Amino acid sequence: MNRHTLTVTDKVTFNKWKNGELRFNPVSGNFIGNFCYSEENYREYVKYNHQELKNGFIFNNTFYENLPDIPLATIPKEDVVKWFSNQDNDNALTYTKWTEAGEYSHYSKEYTSPSGDELVIFGKYTK
Fold first, then answer.
1. What pTM did the predictor assign?
2. Are residues 58 and 107 in the same domain?
3. In three state form, how does the secondary structure of 83-125 look?
């Protein structure tokens, strides 16, 4: 059975990774040092950092009946970045380590979008 991974990033980030300035977590798809602030990331942070109760949950010493009720703006970005960085550190690889890891071959291809964005598509595949 053939296996294949695919990741798309901007050329600047890819080159920083290739030059050793960043590490890449192939499990989460995050580059360490290049965190994306999104509602999805905040929700994941809350999901793993709350205490479940029978009738709701506690997050940051406050009771909530439902997970979506938490006001995301009250969560400091620094807390989310720190938590994701700790999660990513377990699997984060330099470009060199990523190319050497496992029995897969790797590839990368540069692409310029119609709007002029310079992208790099990269991944691994079985031979």
1. 0.57
2. no
3. HHHHHHHCCCECHHHHHHCCCCEEEEEEEECCCCCEEEEEEEE
Q: Would strands 7-10 and 105-112 be described as parallel, antiparallel, or unpaired?
A: unpaired
Task: Quick: pLDDT tens for 75-122.
Answer: 776 676 666 666 556 677 888 888 887 778 889 999 999 999 999 999
Judge if 65 and 39 occupy the same domain: yes
Do 13 and 49 belong together in one domain? no
Per-residue pLDDT reduced to its tens digit, 28-49:
788 876 555 567 767 777 777 6
> Which residues form the domain of 76?
34-91
Q: Are residues 59 and 102 in the same domain?
A: no
Tokens representing 6? Answer: 């695919």
- DSSP element (H, E) containing 31: strand 31-32
How many domains is the chain partitioned into structurally? 2
Cβ-in-10-Å burial (0-12, 13-18, 19+) of 89 comes to: exposed
